[in-house]
C-alpha cells in the first residue's frame, strides 16, 4: 500500500525544501512538497521532483566496477575495498598520505557526508581542496567586511521598503524567495533587479538595471559617489561603527561618474536614482553568486557591502547585505565528526587549480584521487586540463550514483545511495535557518551503499575501524551537541521533521562585528595592501586586456540550469538535451544569426558547439551557455572557462571569460 512519508531535499540549493514522498512496495513513487514546512510550504521545483527519476533510474551504477584493459568489469565489494585499502596502505608507506587527493564538492547537503573528512584525517591527512567554485570570493569578502557571512531571516523581507536583487537568479535558483518577493511587492515594497540577463526575476521588477558583467563593484562605487555628493550617507553609522571610511571617499573621488557610466554601461541617472533608493531605508540587498565569479569578485562584493553600510542598511530590520547564511552550518559541531586533530600530514590545493596542482605535485606526487559528491570533469574550469590531470593519476576512485564524465575516467567506480536510501539531516547555509530530517525510505538497488558504509569498511581494513564504530543516531548526536542545550534534540527533530536553528535573525543588529577591529571594515585592517577597496575590473575585459577583447569580443556567462542541479539531471530528461547558446540581440545582428543556427563558441582554452537562442533584453555582447552539460549532450562549457582564482584567492573566475563565435556548418 502506498504511504506518504516526510523527507528532505539533499540538493545543493538555496532552499533546502521539506518533502512528502510517496513510497509503495519499497519504491519511491512520487516526490512532493511538505505543506507543513515553515519556509518551503509544500512547493518544490522540478529538480526535487526528479529525485524520484534519479532514484529509480535504470542507469544507476549498481555494483562496484573496476577498469581492466580500458573496460569496466563488475567486481565484488570485498575485492574493491581490499584493493583500494591495499593501495592506500602502500601509498602511506612508500610516499606520504598527502599523495592522496580528496576531490569533492557539495552535491549532497547531508550532515553525515562530512564523515569523508573523518576518514581522511584518521588515515593521516590527505591533500584537501580549499576555496570554492561556487561562492568563495564573496564569502571571504564578507569575512573581511563583517567578520562573517550572515543573512537576514527570510520573513524580514516584509520589513523592507526597497529590495535590490543583485545578480541572483531568484526565480530559477531560489524559488521560495521568489514567492516572498511577489508577496513583498503586494505589500508595497519596490523591487530592483541588477543583472546582465533579463531573467524571470527581472520581469517582475519595478526597475531592471542591466549592467556589463563583472562591473558591479564599479556600479556600487558610482552609487556611493552619488550618495556622498547628495549627502545621503548615514553619518552616525559610519562614524560609530566603521573603520576606513576615508579610503572609500578617496576611492570614489579618484574616478568620475561619467567614466563609471562608460565602464559599467549604466547611465549616470540610474546611479543617482539608486543612491536615493538605498538612502530611502530600509533597503535590503540580496546578492547572488554569479556576480562574484570574476577575477575582481571579492572586491565586487566588498563594494556592494560598503554601499549597504554607508547607506545605514546594516543591522536594521528590512536591510542587510545578504549573500550567504553561514550561521546555519556554524550551528553544528563538525569538528566532533571530522576529527581534524587526527591529521598528521596536510597539503592543500586550490579547488579551481586542482588539475594544475595534480600535474605539478611533487614530494609527494599524487598517486590516488578519490572523488566524492563532485563531478570535476564537468564542473571544474578548464576541462581539458582536468581531464589530463585525472587521467594521468595512477588510481582514480569515483564514488557516485551514475557513470558521469568523471566516473568514465575512473579505475574504480563505487556505487552509492540516493538520499531516500539513507537517513541524514539536511541544511543549507545559503538562505533559511531550518534543519530538516530525512529518513531512509527505501532500500538501495543492486549493491549501492551509503558513502558512510564505504568509509567504515575502508577504515576497518586500514586499522581505524573503531573511529567509525558509531550508529547513525550517535553521529547525529555528535553534530547536534551544541544545539541540545537550546532544545534542539535529535528526538524532537525526528518527530517534527524540521526545526528552526538558533541564529541571528537580523545579523549585526548590535553593531558588534566579528572583524579584528570589532567594526565594519571598509579597509580590512589585517590584510595589508590587499585590504583596501579598489576599482578592479574583470581580467578578461577590454579594460584589463584590450588585445584579448579584440580577438574574443563576447563575454560568456555559464549560469545554473533551470531543470538540473548542475550536472545531476541532464541524463534523466525525457528528451535528449541540446546545448543552447543564448546570445544578446546585438550579436545576432552583427553575425547574421537566427534562432536554431548551429554555432561554434571558442577561445584559447577550447570550443563548444550548440544551437542559437536569441535572448531578449540581454546586455550587449553577452552570451550564456548553461553549465553542467555532459560530454554526450555537447560537453562541458568549462572547456572554455579559466582556472584563475579570484582576487582574494578563494573564489572561481568562471564568468570572467571572453569568447568568439561563428556559424558551424558541420552539425
Ligand atoms: N535550477 C537550479 N537552481 C540552483 C542550482 C542549479 O544548478 N540549478 N544550483 C544551486 C547552487 S549550487 C548555487 S551556487 C545557486 C546559485 O544561484 P544564483 O546566484 O542565483 O545563480 P548563478 O547561476 O550562480 O548566477 C547567475 C545569475 O547571476 C547573474 N550574473 C552573472 N554575472 C553577473 C554580473 O557580473 N553581474 C550581475 N549583476 N549579475 C551577474 C546571471 O545573469 C544570473 O542571473 O543556485 C542554486 N540553485
Ligand atoms: N561553468 C560553470 N561551472 C560551474 C558553475 C557555474 O556556474 N558555471 N557553478 C559551480 C558551482 S556554484 C558549484 S556548487 C559546482 C557544483 O559542482 P558539483 O557538486 O561537482 O556538481 P553536481 O553535478 O551537483 O554533483 C556532482 C556529482 O555528485 C554526485 N552525488 C550526488 N549525491 C551524492 C552522494 O550522496 N554521494 C556521492 N559520493 N556523490 C553524490 C552526483 O551524482 C554528481 O555526479 O559547480 C561549479 N561549476
Ligand atoms: S532543488 Fe532546491 S528548490 Fe528544488 S526541491 Fe530541492 S531544495 Fe527545493
Ligand atoms: Mo554552488
Automatic annotation (TrEMBL):
InterPro entries: Asp_de-COase-like_dom_sf (IPR009010), MoPterin_dinucl-bd_dom (IPR006657), Mopterin_OxRdtase (IPR006656), Mopterin_OxRdtase_4Fe-4S_dom (IPR006963), Mopterin_OxRdtase_prok_CS (IPR006655), Prok_Mopterin_Oxidored (IPR050612). It comes from the Bacteria. GO terms for molecular function: iron-sulfur cluster binding; metal ion binding; molybdopterin cofactor binding; oxidoreductase activity. Its cofactor is Mo-bis(molybdopterin guanine dinucleotide). Keywords: Iron, Iron-sulfur, Metal-binding, Molybdenum, Oxidoreductase. Coiled coil: none annotated. Residues 2-59 form the 4Fe-4S Mo/W bis-MGD-type domain. SUPFAM superfamilies: ADC-like, Formate dehydrogenase/DMSO reductase, domains 1-3. Pfam families: Molybdop_Fe4S4 (PF04879), Molybdopterin (PF00384), Molydop_binding (PF01568). Gene3D superfamilies: 2.40.40.20, 3.40.50.740, ADC-like domains, Dimethylsulfoxide Reductase, domain 2, Formate dehydrogenase/DMSO reductase. PANTHER family: OXIDOREDUCTASE YYAE-RELATED, TRIMETHYLAMINE-N-OXIDE REDUCTASE. Belongs to the prokaryotic molybdopterin-containing oxidoreductase family. This is Trimethylamine-N-oxide reductase (Cytochrome c). It comes from Neobacillus vireti LMG 21834.
